[in-house]
């Protein structure tokens, strides 16, 4: 950074500090601001930076407003439609993911306080708070993006912030075929399976495209069906007219008010659903899902983190056992075999491309675990 850029940066920080202190003084005195923030910033820059050119003053005003009420240095990154995820590992280390590839950026915060201020501006409109008593937050932004924050003392090198973006548009099955995520044969198979009310489990690692594929497969559900979606953070965008969206809720700072995915699933069974779509199975709700699938609620769609279709069924068994009701493993395995029809496995290669690499049918085979009762359903 050159001497001129450094001088402008220091000036921006100084003016921003003055602006915040002025606003705090007005709030403490019970007075409302007499002018709009943008006008106040314009007057402040004109007063303190009169020697700068008009373009530099305009850029300085934009930066001060951005750092005061926006997300600071992250604003430019989030304005880029190609950025899929923003990862902040402390004030001086910011990475982004573009096209499935993680790359470092030259973006940095002036210090930990500026980063903490940006985090507060993200969480405040969501009604969430973060402090030493509650140093981790996972929340959903209004546009559906996921935000996760961890602060010291848990985050050793300063606050860690990640924003996983989800655009308003979700690619449909046809677009996924164009992108190479699905082959035409796979798309036809999955369309027929969903229409036939087969229960489909989508597996894959983090960032492999499970939620995107789940959203695309949901388009094969008939328009006249009543669909209930259950998610930790609402990301799905179903196009059917009769959709009920449910979202879990974490406990408050006082430890009260938690509503889990399992609670929502149990309630959803009383809502006369034709289809249940669960964003991700990750806990004891797996047992309730299997119970529902084995008692007439077929045609469910969900995802699970796993390295293969075999691992996906094994993980589902393990999660069901976490419910702690004392059922033997053999009984859980039989429930999985009878409840799940297809496992669709996604992988992301080194270039960032996401592809369905296997679709496996669950075979009802007596005397074997569900994880071994698989047959390849279709080749790419």
Short summary:
The chain is of the alpha/beta class and 380 residues long.
Could you explain how this protein is built, in words?
The chain has 380 residues and is an alpha/beta fold. It folds into three domains: 1-69, no CATH class; 71-167, 2-Layer Sandwich (Beta-Lactamase); 173-378, P-loop containing nucleotide triphosphate hydrolases (Rossmann fold). The chain contains twelve helices and 14 strands. It has helices spanning 3-28, 37-48, 54-69, 74-78, 112-123, 173-179, 184-195, 210-217, 261-268, 285-293, 309-321, 329-339; strands at 83-89, 94-98, 101-104, 136-140, 146-150, 160-164, 200-204, 227-231, 243-247, 275-278, 301-305, 342-348, 354-362, 374-378. The strands form two sheets. Strands 9-8-10-11-7-12-13-14 form an eight-stranded mixed sheet, with helices on both faces. Strands 3-2-1-6-5-4 form a six-stranded antiparallel sheet. α1 crosses α3, α9 (261-268) packs parallel to α10 (285-293) and α10 packs across α12 (329-339). The chain is elongated and about 80 Å long.
- Overall mean pLDDT stands at 83
**Proportion in β-strands:** 15-25%
Query: How many structurally independent domains?
Result: 3
Corresponding CATH architecture of the largest domain: 3-Layer(aba) Sandwich
Helix percent band? 25-40%
Low-pLDDT sequence parts: none
For CATH, the homologous superfamily of the largest domain is named as P-loop containing nucleotide triphosphate hydrolases
The topology string of helices and strands comes to HHHHEEEHEEEHHEHEEHEHEHHEEE
Structural shape: elongated
Strand order of the largest sheet: 9-8-10-11-7-12-13-14
